[in-house]
Amino acid sequence: MNFLESIFHRLSQTPERPVLREVREGAFVTVTCGELLAQIRAARAFVAGSGLKRGDRCGLLAHNGIRWAAVDLALMAEGVIVVPLYARQAPGEIAGMLRDCGAVMVICGDWSLRDELSRQWPDGPPMHIFFEVFRADPGQATEAPRTLAAGDLVTIIYTSGTSGEPKGVMLAVENLDHMVPCTGARLDLLMEGRGGPDQIFHYLPFCFAGSWILLLTALSRDSLLTMSTDLNQLAEEMKLAAPNYFLNVPALLERVRKGVEGKIAQRGGMAQRIFNKGRAAWLRRLDSPSQALDGLWLSLAESKVFPKIREQLGPNLKALICGSAPLARETQLFFQMIGIPVLQVYGLTETTAICTMDHPREVTAGCVGPAIPGVEMKLGDGDEILVRGLNLFAGYWNRPEATTKAFLDGWFRTGDQGAVGPDGNWRIVGRVKNLIVLSSGHNVAPEPIEEKLAQLLPGAQQVVVMGNGRSFLTALVTGAVSQEQAGRAVETVNAGMPHYKCLRGFHLHAEPLTIESGLLTANGKLRRDAIADYFRDSVEELYRTQKASA
């Protein structure tokens, strides 16, 4: 059976088992496997009656939910290629993607999403909403999906477009046939010895490759996936779901860490003293000589403070999973210290979301784990990570030149700089295309500097290091940061740095960069070219000022 047939088979074998649920106003809305199959049958009846044919492209524009999953599975079961879209993205960008892939229909979650897209694209294809899809009469619709060949496309997922136009990544049945069992096997290791279904919490949009893989993996195993419906209530929803694990982006985990540390600092007293002394003792145990009272402070922290933090974050948490960007080592160590390992995952949409995964029992902070089975990785020129394996995409939709350029002798060029240890454990350094080349000829990866500066500035929303073609580096810092705070942080970062990696100035901007402003991608990554253009005048003034004072 392929991945899709396996999902349908599992759903049909346990019709009474709860499989998906949404958090709505502090309560659960749940569907069983049988109820999900009924929704899929209704959606398939609508698809069949709408004129959509095998191989047609259909946009799916909606927020996460049970119906999103049902429509996605229904379209794939009918052989239609799904084009998932980010509901928060600008309607003009969404319309551009749909034009690019030649979508013949768009299914939207509600009226507002459909109307916004219609205004932007008045001559677009038919646009329907979930209400229309699920009122269709399923009749005698078959439950089994149509037969799909290994090379048949199931989705086109558009890249985030950190520079240039987004490109449609084509993923085929064979990619999912390889990836879903790989992720399932790693979760088996994590959940080893536990009875009952996996309890999973999920808040990241299903239109992103890694998020979608988690959905398919959950549906392929004995799991109950709880979906967040209100990011403003994320902490409350997470407590209600009481998950065993959930997928994260680094920004959230770093925000959680800073929030915990801030609350402990506000509380003060003995609790703060035990936490600070216990943390220092725990960190020294990793790579420094211990001090006389380390054992005492660590024992107090591990009995009085760390368990309370862990309980607040989730009494059933076995691990957190993190992807999309490298996680700060300090943050990963924080969670490890309180007894919640963070398992990192590395990959791109073009690699069906995953190349490496941490082994649950062999986590090295700052690394992203070894390559998964069936995937080869090596370093190319400039320490660029090259990948080969069954996880590689079928190419970019309607962009043969870009597809050819993305490969080197059969190896996919990730564009990421990396390093690998003798044990095969990988570390991500930065993006090759983000590399700053100073006028002195020195090459500087901005990401490590940005990470260090952000860690020293709790009020910072984003940090962007600049200086390509210049004689020195500067930084843009957004958020609630004062000149004095930024100045002290820059001095700390510069200490011990080679001269060419030192920051000679910074520009503060109170408002954070946003997706809506076009300065962040759909999944929150920096659009560096757009940022440089937007802040051009401020940056030029910063360099003039610094040169004059040199």
Widest sheet: strand order?
2-1-10-9-11-12-13-14
Q: Judging by the overall fold, what is the CATH architecture of the largest domain?
A: 3-Layer(aba) Sandwich
Which structural class matches the secondary elements? alpha/beta
Give the amount of beta strand, in percent: 15-25%
The main pleated sheet reads as: 8 strands, mixed
CATH topology of the largest domain: Rossmann fold
Total domain modules: 3
Mean model confidence by pLDDT: 92
Amount of helix: 40-55%
Outline, from the CA principal axes? globular
Radius of gyration: 24 Å
Spell out the CATH superfamily of the largest domain: ANL, N-terminal domain
Instruction: Determine the number of helices (DSSP H or I, runs of at least 4 residues).
Output: 18
CATH class category name of the largest domain: Alpha Beta
> How many β-strand runs?
25
First and last CA, distance: 68 Å
3D architecture notes:
The strands form six sheets. An eight-stranded mixed β-sheet has the order 2-1-10-9-11-12-13-14, with helices on both faces. Strands 15, 16, 18, 19 and 20 form a five-stranded antiparallel β-sheet that branches. It has three domains: 3-244, ANL, N-terminal domain (Rossmann fold, 3-Layer(aba) Sandwich); 250-315 and 319-432, Rossmann fold (3-Layer(aba) Sandwich); 435-549, 2-Layer Sandwich (GMP Synthetase, Chain A, domain 3). The protein contains 18 helices and 25 strands. β12 (320-322), α13 and β13 (342-346) form a beta-alpha-beta unit. The radius of gyration is 24 Å and the shape is globular. The longest helix has 20 residues, at 294-313. It is of the alpha/beta class.
